[in-house]
Amino acid sequence: MATINAYKMDGLGNDFIIIDRRENSINLAKEKIIELGSRTNIGFDQIIFIEKEKKSSYPITIFNSDGGEISACGNGSRCVAYLLSKILNTNEIKLQTNNRILNAKIIKNFYVELEMGKPLFSYEEIPLSKSINSGNITLDINKKIFTNGFSVNVGNPHIIFFVKDCFEYDLKIIGPKIENHELFPEKINVTFAQVIDKKNIKVNVWERGAGLTKACGTAACATAVAAFKNKLVNNKVDIKFKEGLLNIEIDRSNNIFMSGPVSEIKNIKINI
């Protein structure tokens, strides 16, 4: 059994293992990722690998705790950017996912802004399994009808339901039902959102492949986009999670900017 160095970080309780493989090839089998991701082991929402630099950007490869690879992780990307900024002694980092370039800026100690790019609204891009209005989705879950769901891709697929009390719904029960609904061929992240006023939204999030989570950066972005499109909030809004908030801004070009805190960097050892 070999031992490798890694890092543990979180953004508002949304936690990650980060493995730097810019110089050394380190591969983990799906079964090992699931084992490490268990809360009885190290535990994490996502594990992220930093790859060799390409054209002044750093590719990242992301896996959920269920071992499935995903395209985006907002809080995780902010944590990776902060880690790389310390290693490389710079306040600007460019990350590359398999479908986007993410520009990160270290605003101050333990606080990172990430440019997420533009949201995608067409059913093919989200994706949905059929051509319907992605801004007005109705689902029948456990014989209960959920209406006015807003689906969008912000690097990964999301659906948002605006409700009076976002914690009234048991996402441990309905979250996986919505995540795995036939309408979503790549599964979906699920958010129940409660608009407080034009500048504040409270959310409860079920993350595909990870389950109930304390925070989710891309869910914050998707919620802000959905609320702004529905004229429920301004283009700058705070998305409130249990352990703090993320500020989301949508500029005139429809680019999404996410700003928020990251944790300290913890060095850990992993047996593989």
Architecture overview:
The protein has 272 residues and is of the alpha+beta class. The chain folds into 2 domains: 3-117 and 261-271, Diaminopimelate Epimerase, Chain A, domain 1 (Roll); 137-254, Diaminopimelate Epimerase, Chain A, domain 1 (Roll), CATH 3.10.310.10. The chain is built from 4 helices and 18 strands. It has helices at residues 30-37, 74-88, 171-179, 217-229, and strands spanning 3-11, 14-20, 46-50, 58-64, 69-70, 92-96, 101-108, 111-117, 137-141, 144-153, 157-162, 189-197, 200-207, 211-213, 236-241, 244-250, 256-261, 266-271. It has an 18-stranded mixed beta sheet that branches. The radius of gyration is 18 Å and the shape is globular. The mean pLDDT is 96.
How is the topology of this model organized?
Blueprint: E1 3-11, E2 14-20, H1 30-37, E3 46-50, E4 58-64, E5 69-70, H2 74-88, E6 92-96, E7 101-108, E8 111-117, E9 137-141, E10 144-153, E11 157-162, H3 171-179, E12 189-197, E13 200-207, E14 211-213, H4 217-229, E15 236-241, E16 244-250, E17 256-261, E18 266-271
Parallel strand pairs: 2-3, 4-6, 11-12, 13-15
Antiparallel strand pairs: 1-2, 1-18, 3-4, 4-5, 6-7, 7-8, 8-17, 9-10, 10-11, 12-13, 13-14, 15-16, 16-17
Query: What is the overall number of helices?
Result: 4
Instruction: Name the average pLDDT.
Output: 96
Q: Calculate Rg over CA atoms.
A: 18 Å
Just give the CATH class of the largest domain.
Alpha Beta
CATH topology of the largest domain: Diaminopimelate Epimerase, Chain A, domain 1
The assigned CATH architecture of the largest domain is Roll
| Structural class assignment | alpha+beta
Helix content: 10-25%
Shape: globular
Amino-to-carboxy terminus distance: 6 Å
Percent of sequence in beta strands? 35-45%
The total domain count is: 2
- Uncertain runs are none
CATH superfamily of the largest domain: Diaminopimelate Epimerase, Chain A, domain 1
The number of E-state strands comes to 18
**Main pleated-sheet profile:** 18 strands, mixed
Helix and strand succession?
A: EEHEEEHEEEEEEHEEEHEEEE
